[in-house]
Write a structure and sequence with these properties.
By secondary structure, the chain is mostly helical. The protein has eleven helices and no strands.
Length: about 170
């Protein structure tokens, strides 16, 4: 793979920041669209980021440092979670690990003690489905108790009504 010149990279960045589509930039600069995407990624360019004001970006950083998640902040500003991550990255803020990574061992212990996936994921505020996937990867059987039939297996121990006799 041949490296592009600094001048060409700067031209790609300028066109990208002006709102040109990747396909159009690749035609103008006579490079493959993948090259344009790589330049954009390498330079942390983000179209949604440019729609946010400086004060909004500062507030996003503050909210994250106060403990809000990228997903929660993204919902507040109606942008993608990746946009929030890019803003944080551009401001040298390390992205926290997910709660699932932080509390996984405790969660597994709770699951083995009979707590449901839903109870555990609600307590630690992580994805129920991701927790289920991680359990399965460890070979731990995942039982969905919500779909199990619930019945009284001792109902016919004493036949005391006409209905039980049939």
């Amino acid at each position: 793979m041949q490296k592009i010149s600094n001048d060409l990279e700067n031209k790609i960045i300028d066109l990208y920041n002006q709102g040109y589509k990747i396909k159009d930039i690749s035609k103008i600069c006579k490079v493959h669209p993948t090259t344009v995407s790589r330049v954009a990624n390498r330079n942390s360019l983000c179209r949604e980021c440019s729609k946010l004001t400086l004060s909004e970006k500062i507030n996003i950083c503050k909210l994250y440092n106060l403990g809000k998640t990228c997903s929660d902040i993204a919902k507040l500003y109606n942008v993608s979670r990746n946009t929030i991550s890019t803003i944080l990255h551009n401001n040298n803020i390390n992205i926290r690990r997910s709660n699932l990574d932080t509390y996984f061992e405790e969660a597994v212990q709770m699951y083995s003690n009979g707590y449901s996936l839903t109870q555990i994921s609600n307590k630690y505020k992580f994805s129920r489905s991701n927790f289920s996937i991680r359990l399965k990867k460890l070979g731990i059987p995942v039982i969905n108790t919500q779909n199990m039939l619930k019945f009284n297996e001792h109902i016919f121990d004493i036949i005391d009504t006409e209905e039980k006799a049939y």
